[in-house]
Design goal:
Blueprint lengths: L2 H19 L4 E4 L4 E6 L5 E6 L1
Length: 51
């Protein structure tokens, strides 16, 4: 993935998930992976990686 396409996907997933879940989503990108953490409770969160 290129840098611009990675940024585009990150923002698209962030916007979509925040609208659907009504929660703040933490997204991070690496050279070939998009990581996002979805808060579940007070202190826990699920981390999902999309290679």
């Amino acid at each position: 993935m290129g840098a611009k396409y990675s940024f585009f996907l990150k923002e698209m997933y962030r916007f979509t998930l925040e609208e659907l879940l009504d929660k703040k989503i933490d997204l991070q990108t690496t050279d070939n992976t998009l990581l996002f953490a979805v808060p579940e409770g007070n202190l826990s969160s699920s981390i999902i990686a999309i290679p």
